[in-house]
Design a protein that fits this description.
39% of the residues lie in helices and 17% in strands. The chain is built from 5 helices and 5 strands, in the order βαβαβαβαβα. Helix 1 packs across helix 5 and helix 2 packs parallel to helix 3. The radius of gyration is 14 Å and the shape is globular.
Length: 142
């Protein structure tokens, strides 16, 4: 399993944030493929290979923002966890919401982690590095 490339599905409508993730990947020499989706509907279409999108290869890891138009992160999680073919996908929430209610709702839908995007200093870069280490050492579900 360790030789398999993990594809990252970055679900975030904020271009500045998506560029920050891509810059962090470059800074850490992370070469995994990154596919972007601007909201939960597009992310589900990409995961399922619907509406003209190529299906995201497995194994994959989702980096999910909560606050997005059309379908936000919580609604995306509800749909994802209700789909027998997608429910085991690993999801890390990366959001600006420090609300305890958002964090609890996300963890109740079995997210692997909840990180705040806008913390001062190098914590964002450290968080991305931790994610990379995580997906390199774990075994992904089928």
């Amino acid at each position: 399993m360790k030789d398999t490339t993990v594809t990252v599905l970055l679900v975030d409508d904020d271009k500045v944030d998506t560029m920050a993730v891509r810059r962090s990947f470059l800074a850490l020499n992370i070469t995994n493929p990154v596919i972007e989706a601007r909201n939960g509907i597009e992310a589900l279409d990409r995961l399922r290979g619907h509406n003209g999108y190529e299906k995201v290869p497995r194994p994959c890891l989702v980096m999910l923002d909560l606050n997005m138009p059309r379908m936000g992160g919580i609604e995306f999680l509800e749909e994802l966890r209700g789909d027998p073919t997608l429910r085991r996908i690993l999801v890390f929430v990366m959001t600006t919401s420090a609300a305890a209610e958002d964090r609890m709702r996300a963890y109740n839908m079995n997210v692997a982690g909840y990180m705040l995007k806008h913390r001062p200093g190098q914590s964002f870069l450290k968080a991305i590095g931790m994610l990379q280490h995580f997906w390199r050492v774990i075994e992904f579900p089928e």
